[in-house]
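batch job 7 of whatever, protein = DNA endonuclease SmrA
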Amino acid sequence: MNSNTYPSDFDDFFNEFKDVTPIKNANVVQTARNGDSLAKQLKRKAIAVEQNLTNNYLSVEKVEPVDPYDHLSFKQDGVQDGVFKNLRLGKYKIDSVANLQSLKFEQARSQLFIHIMNSHQRGDRTILVKHGLGLHSKPFAAFLKSYVNQWLTQMPEIIAFHTALPQHGGNSAVYALLKKNQQQKSHNREIHSKR
């Protein structure tokens, strides 16, 4: 290496980087301060579940018995016939499944209530509720199925339901259609106002 060219090259090199500032303490990792810890998230979820359980208004009183092989069907006023037909024919994507089979009565009541509330909050539109046939249930056949039939009509979040197709459980399950949540309604209003 020529000693005469070295300082000049070196000076040129430093001149190219004269406006560069060094990085400060690169060994420090920044973390989000306002992000919730997992423990806080779990605690908040447990409180919400507990609140849902205490707010559970699903009836435990007398129920109108249905036959294990009865088709269940319900539609609120205002639900379009085409929408109900598509539900009945299983044409909507199933967003979630509430499996109540083999649960005790109170567990099934709580599970159904929480599942529907959470599904509605998430924005699910169609859920599959598996209640079973209850051929040998006590005190009468189709005990849980009879209550599910009653409970779904008591929830304002459910606008329609119908017995499922054989591939989804047939007479032992129903498709339930949930109304849009507030966020989905606002989104629809925005879309229609832009037209």
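notes: The two ends are 74 Å apart (CA to CA).
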